[in-house]
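Progress narrative, Year 2. Work on TatD DNase family protein from Phorcysia thermohydrogeniphila advanced from sequence curation to structure prediction during this period.
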Amino acid sequence: MIDTHAHIHFPQFDEDREEVIKECEDKLTAVITVGCDLEDSLKAIDVAHKGKNIYASVGIHPHEAKNYSEKDYERLLEIAKSSPKVVAVGEAGLDFYRNLSPKEKQYEVFEMQVEAARELNLPIIVHTRNAAKEMAEFIRTKFNGVRGVIHCFSGERELLEAALDAGLYISYAGPVTYPKNSALRETLRFVPSSRLLIETDCPYLAPQPVRGKRNKPVFVAHTALTIAKELGLNFTDIVRITTINAKRLFNLPLSDAEKKERLAYPVGNRLYLNLSTDCPCNCKFCFRGSEDFILGYNLNLKGEHVAEEYMYRVKNPGIYEEVVFCGYGEPFTRFEDMKKVLNWLKKMGAKRIRVNTCGLGYLITGKEDILDELKGLVDSFSVSLNASSPEEYYRVVRPSFGKGSWESALKFIKDAKEKGFKVTITAVSYPGFDEESFKKLAETLNVDYRIRPFKRFKKWEE
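Result:
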């Protein structure tokens, strides 16, 4: 687990800093202690050198912007280059809550730091308070490929959309654990797993179980627990997801296991099997081509793997609540290998088996008896239909088979239902999605439905 935003170089830790650093070394993967002005950044770097897995950022907080200008650009670069422990620029941004620096100064110094991040090829840690609209506009117009994170995100949807469109990460701190912050917790559903981070912002903002105490990096675990509960995941999932994400953003080394492409990957009490990178659909909202890491796993396979390798990876499928064929691509593109794995799973005591599919199995295989071949092997299908009409389907799903795909998908759904499989049709609530019509379609087909939140990987353009 990584605390991506701490201030353990602050005076609040002067009396027990060595003890806190040891605790971080023992219990966390890494901590980033974040500078708030150039002198403070030097202190952060000094503290980073006191621990193997402590890192620093160099930046100017908007409160301090009044003391700086573009003439400090070279010194900022010099300090950032002074140590390999520096992994980011920031914290930098806009704070119109206290206005301790004039707004024009805040803009000037923030833009300077964005340019520094670009030149240094480092991510930027973004602070924003009472400036969500202005920050969203700044990101849209000024970032242009600069990597970074919105630190201590406080829930503004416009800012969330702008940040995700720009490829930024979203970090949650102690406030997400506070009982009255249900609206903030709700925003977690819209953040892609590959963009989620956690932090403490210590010594401030202690999470609910330790609220009122001095915050410290190990308390990030409380935030992880709250997020896991909100997203229906377990603590291990959130630790894995946020650790991988932090390493990717801040260029910290991934272990060989973390880098390795995953054929089988557990999430909660389910095991997912990643058979293929191929898919006949090009859904406008899909992560394929934008992200390799999903839920903390590298799912972008570099080649096909034989069925026996999946059997070797799984070992004991009976320990899972459900085994799900769901990965980077469409499992029906490897129908014969899928059948081999399915037969083995059943022999080995898999409790329930689900196949997540686009529903174009007939067109992919060129056969219409595939459901008969799957009787007794598959318990349920989750069909990503993502539309309630042919017009919507071809505009958003964009199947490579072209016309006739909609009708083929509907036939697959009807046939599966008729042959006794449990069938759920699913959709993503992308901009303009017709939710009511989709529900009516599910009723007409006499199947269950599920609507997933739209998670932005890039700008949505009609």
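The chain is about 35% helix and 15% strand. The CA atoms of residues 264 and 312 lie 10 Å apart.
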